[in-house]
User: What shape does this take?
Amino acid sequence: MFQTRKREAGEGLRVAIVGATGAVGEVLLGILEERQLPIETLLPLASHRSVGRTVSFRGNEIEVQEAKPEAFDGLDIVFFAATGSLSKELAPEAAKRGAIAIDKSSTWRMDDRVPLVVPEINPEALDAHEGIIASPNCTTIGVVMALEPIRRVAGLEYVVITTLQATSGAGKPGVDELEAQVTAIREGREPKAEVFAAPIAYNTVPLCETFRPEDGYTTEEVKLLYETRKILGPTHSGGDVDVHMTCVRVPVPVGHAATMLIQTERTISPEAAREALAAFPGIEVVDDIATNLFPTQRDVVGRDEVLVGRIRRDLTSDRIALWQVSDNLRKGAATNSVQIVEALIERGLV
Ligand SMILES: NC(=O)c1ccc[n+]([C@@H]2O[C@H](COP(=O)([O-])OP(=O)(O)OC[C@H]3O[C@@H](n4cnc5c(N)ncnc54)[C@H](OP(=O)(O)O)[C@@H]3O)[C@@H](O)[C@H]2O)c1
Assistant: This one.
């Protein structure tokens, strides 16, 4: 079993954030303040470019240091919110020094030794961790949150998903590119596309990350498939949940949305699905067609709940259709990582 540092009674956690200057890192700092984790020290880490900058935490300005293995000595928790290659290199270094690495990148998610956790769904997976714990992709988290309550009541066979993903899903450079292109178009200039494969301003782009030459899917879409299977586990009949997905980038700074068509194993009415969703922790149902009530990406910014609406029966089958929105930087990334630490504390694992 993985052993963390022995803490004295009443001693708080020593925590570091790798990527503290990035889009997820900044939101993570705010959530760590909000949620009252027992933090004794907080160490912001980033690349050499950010050394000398400060970040603010609980009223103090703390200097950013370069992320290097030695920085992890004596820590309890290291959040990784930087790049996949850095997580690959440094997460084992953190674990080697007795700190638990909570990784936001895709590097470790499909590794059999690494739990992939959404605390509302599979916190028990944490018990077997070996020092590295993965938080799922920002799109996967919203999707599995909406699927799990329905799966618990009616089982799950397959789901057809189309996502509408915010530019911040590609980090700060993605947000900046949308702004720069809006300005360029307004000033009559050609928008320059660097982060995304085509102009994202006043447009939608059906390519998140990169295409896979072998099957025409994108790396983002394939993450959604395999991560969903790993988190939700097998169907009642022992097979894998099938996930058919198209991921689309939209000109929205924050908030990922998805339409979902769900084939359950046993028929479930839209009313029962609505009830199961409303009772699930971390979900809020926003759904009243009489008053045009449905959740939008703007509604979810700064919130931790996954919002679900447009819950209805497919017109040509007994499938359930719905619309789901979540803040990709919060529940899709930072909040989920902090909830993982809260679950570790609850389970006596840190
Ligand atoms: N954005 C989302 O919605 C989202 C959701 C889920 C997961 N994630 C994952 O979270 C991670 C961070 O994403 P982000 O959106 O926050 O990206 P971002 O805004 O581009 O920030 C990247 C962060 O990583 C740091 N960094 C980059 N190279 C580094 C290096 N060689 N050494 C140390 N630090 C380095 C940067 O530091 P400098 O400022 O010094 O360059 C910055 O703090 C990624 O793995 C991403 O896949 C993102």
